[in-house]
């Protein structure tokens, strides 16, 4: 019997036991046969220490936990307890078989449509069934951009003026107040979602850039989920302009790929913001082939900062920084060849790397799997879905924006 079935049997048996008339328990049994029957029915009732119940429940999917909250008051209290939520989060994010990891996909249809499926199914099954997601903001013909994910929360930019924090597993969301920036044509906002481990607060950083003003600084505001408000912090470093819309969260910092004009040329740099100290620093990239590659972009794999670029339009190269902030820890993770006649498309991602090294990425609106062991490609089939505009991997957790 599965752990879910076992717990369901325990919970509902205990619930049924409480409904028995206390007077019936106290009255003498009319016969030995009835007594034996009562004893036999009570024998299967197991007793589990609370510590063991916590260990079992903390390993279950969020969908099951939401159902089990109705079993009894003690389970409702346990599943809602902050300590239990943190334990479940820790186990879910560090699952070696990525059983709690899902990928959200934005369809290339005229209407804004989102689907979600388990990452493990893409790697292990020839065909994957996706769930339709009910996006909280009703904007049928406007595609909101996915900023990133953090501990089960997804962040979407809405018209570049506010953000939505949403946990699809919990079906809970919160919309931020407007940024109130003086927007005009040519302006853009680069966002980033992260977690401040010191204050235990989820934060969204908005870098507002106005290229029309040559000497203007990029104004920066931070949204706190705890206070549901924006506040100004120190401007983005002078002379640096983020060109990648979403900052990547690693080790308590948000990281943007940025340009730094030097004379008639422009240098590619990584600007890092410490979410707690709210201070900036430059993270040095690896020693890569600058002359023969496209402008790099940043990503996150296995909680490590990554750097991706096209090399001579023949390969897609991925570097990974094993120890954040240590330049010597950069190593070349994989070099993925382009298929013949790549036209104008480039790979997007990568979104995930399996235990055996297979890489999940996107090419020409389709998800693909690359196996570096034999240089082979696989094309996961997704039922009732084709053509993806954007994607983001997230973890099923109990983190809710409504509880902060």
Automatic annotation (TrEMBL):
Q: Where is the F-box domain?
A: 42-88
**InterPro entries found in the cross-reference section:** F-box-assoc_dom_typ1, F-box-assoc_interact_dom, F-box-like_dom_sf, F-box_dom, SCF_F-box_component
Family annotation (Gene3D superfamilies): 1.20.1280.50
Q: Which SMART domains match?
A: FBOX
Family matches, as CDD domains: F-box_AtFBW1-like
Q: Which domain of life is it from?
A: Eukaryota
Pfam families on file: F-box, FBA_1
What NCBIfam families has UniProt attached to this entry?
A: F_box_assoc_1
Protein name per its UniProtKB record: F-box/kelch-repeat protein At3g23880 isoform X1
Gene symbol of the encoding locus: LOC106776101
